[in-house]
Amino acid sequence: MPFRSIPKLALLLLTLLFFMPKESPAQKKPAKTPKPTPVAAKPVPPEISYTVSMPKPATHLLEVEMRVSWAQMPDQTELKMPVWTPGSYLVREYARHVQAFVAKDANGGDLKWRKTSKNTWQVDSKGVKEFVARYKVYSNELTVRTNELNDEHAFWNNTALLFFVKDQLKVSPTVRVIPFGNWKVATGLPAVPGAENTFKANDYDVLYDAPFEVSDYKEFKFDVLGKPHRYVITGEGNYDPKKLVADTAKIVEEGAKIFGGELPYNDYTFILNLRGGGGLEHLNSTALQTNRFGFKPDARYKGFLGLVAHEHFHLWNVKRIRPDALGPFDYENENYTKLLWVAEGATEYYSNILLLRAGLITQREFLAQRAGGIQQLQARPGRFETSLEESSFDAWIKFYRPDENAVNNQISYYDKGEIVNMMLDMSIRSASGGTKSLDDVMRYLWAEFFKKNRNFTPEDYQKVSEMMAGKSLDDFFAKYVRGREDIDYDSIVNPFGLQMKVTTPNANRAYIGADTVEENGRLNIRTVPANTPAYEQGLNTGDQIVAIDGYRASTAFLTSYLNEKKPNDKVKLSIFRFDKLSEMTFTLGSNDRREYSFATVAEPTEAQQKLYRSYFNADL
Fold first, then answer.
1. In angstroms, rounded to a whole number, what is the distance separating the alpha carbons of residues 7 and 9?
2. C-alpha distances in angstroms, 433 versus 281, 428, 437, 445?
3. Neighbours of 600 (CB within 10 A)
4. Position 16 confidence tier, pLDDT thresholds 50, 70, 90
5. Which residues contact 506 (CB under 8 A, 6 or more apart)?
């Protein structure tokens, strides 16, 4: 449109707009500040408390009241029972012992609930600020990982007794115990001031790590490195309390020396029941069980001290120096790791090292015991079928469920783990000229993993070992940890002036090759190791040997009769298999089972003597 055609009024308005003064920055209206995004309030965790009572010990029923208070109570609250206990790698289905479950609101009114899985109770908690779950747990199994209640005592693991609320394992629960009669309460949990028999845990990993003993127990207190310790002993036995306390104190001191004299707890409780057998480690306590007359003779007592040393050393190795998958724990599923050969095997090795350093066994006893372990390992065909890492990983399905074929396809991560850790220690010592040892590996893991809240992996354990040895140990780990090769003992122990002596003292004696046991007058075959005459000629586990050459079979007769025979002689075996009698002509074999022992080399060098002295604190 031509400029001249614009109407005069429009032209005037354009002119005014063009010449209007512009708004200065100072005159501009300030921009609106955006409102901050509301920060979601941190969810308030529930308050959870338990009361455990035992009004009728003869019923074996522990009664539990679980109180849950929650400012933000969900419509439905899931209560769960663990399925296993850390330190014992098997799903044990503790929920099978739960009965008489009920849920009530704060006024005592019934709340609806339902089972939604094998170990989950779902409670309709909508609209309430607090509810109480009550249930009973049948407790009539005395092991270090289960529960027992009877007229003598109550012993329990909290994993096998106390529910947790789903996703609330960081809550700090309290436990109040109402003991039967005049019984006393012992646990490693700290007491709540001013509240009788009431204890508090920082979280559920701590709660589930603290067993209880409630009985008229005997208590023996002692101090080690300024920290209070005590034995809590239920049952009568042939122990000497003064000697037991003194020897235990020596073990504790020797363990602490490895870690710079540090005891990482405020107090420690040894719970000892004089029935059953075994031990289970905890952060500041241990559950021990042994025969009431298992403290004499001296050999049996030293065996018990080995159990004490093993469980106490766990407070460093496993409870704090943690393998990859072992903590924080998943209490509803398997926690797989390839490192149980370190968790248990290294701990078993150190249990005997501590006894040696404490002067409770001699170096000859130490070597004889280790040779015995080697002999048992070498007699297992399963050493060629399963590696240490495989044995560790498969503990959940194999270790606690051995069958008659276990000798042929499995090894123990405890037993072989102890031997391999000993060989690893010796390898580090010899490679470093005696300046480093497995102690340095443990100290490094303590400082660089536990202190920094890290778990270690199989690769970490090898790398730290190599760091101390000053060279690659990949061949060692590839053969003896990840692999299934026989251990070359001589090459490892020779730098210490030792050699492995192997003999076959019964090579000229005839034998069947099966392991037998006499039960109720019957001679039964227990296991049939591979590559034996029994294995090759078809004898089975469970077969009953009725007679040999027509004479009634027994352990004593079989031994004496075979002593008169030679390898390759033939005998007639009468056996019951599935209640059917049969006979077979059996060719006796040569008993080639080997015996192992450590011997000193004829003329040890100065270097060999030095390494031996640094290891055993004694001369060759």
1. 6
2. 34, 8, 10, 22
3. 15
4. very low
5. 591, 593
Helix axes 458-469, 438-445, angle to 10 degrees: 130
222 with 205, same domain? no
Whether residue 591 contacts residue 606, with contact meaning beta carbons closer than 8 Å, is answered with no
Answer yes or no: is 135 within a domain: yes
User: Residues 308-330: pLDDT tens digits?
Assistant: 999 999 999 999 999 999 999 99
Please report which confidence band the pLDDT of residue 43 belongs to, taking 50, 70 and 90 as the band edges. Answer: confident
Q: What CATH number corresponds to the domain at position 531?
A: 2.30.42.10
Residue 276: pLDDT band by 50, 70, 90 thresholds?
A: very high
Contact in structure between 207 and 201 (CB atoms under 8 Å): yes
Could you give the percent of the chain with pLDDT greater than 70?
93
90: its two tokens: 């098997």
Q: What's the domain range around 518?
A: 510-590
Name the amino acid, one letter, at 305: L
The three-state secondary structure class of 135 is strand
- Domain match, 229 and 81 both: no
- CA-to-CA distance for 266 and 252, rounded, in angstroms? 14
Nearest to 351 by CA among 311, 410, 321: 311
- Tokens encoding 537: 């000629």
Residues 146 and 293 in one domain: no
Domain boundary among 190, 210, 230: 210
Q: What is the pLDDT of residue 42?
A: 73
The verdict on residue 400 lying in a domain is yes
> In terms of residues, how long is the chain?
620
Residues facing 48 on adjacent strands: 68
Q: Is residue 605 part of a domain?
A: no
SS3 589: strand
Residue 101, in any domain of the structure:
yes
Q: What is the pLDDT of residues 527-536, one digit of tens each?
A: 999 999 999 9
Verify that 364 and 387 share a domain, yes or no. yes
Which residues on neighbouring strands pair with residue 228, listed in sequence order? 223
Q: Got the DSSP string for 325-387?
A: TSSS--TTS----S-HIIIIIIHHHHHHHHHHHTTSS-HHHHHHHHHHHHHHHHT-GGGGT--
Domain count of the fold of the chain: 4
Specify the CATH number for the domain of residue 198: 2.60.40.3650
Amino acid at 413: Y
pLDDT tens-digit readout, 468-505: 999 999 999 999 999 999 999 999 999 999 999 999 99
Q: Which amino acid is at 600?
A: T
* CATH classification of the domain holding 258: 3.30.2010.30
Domain boundary among 186, 210, 234: 210
- Rounded (10°) CA dihedral 466, 469, 470, 473: -40
Token pair recorded at residue 167: 């996703």
Compute CA distances 475 → 218, 365, 384, 467, 480, whole Å.
52, 30, 17, 15, 8
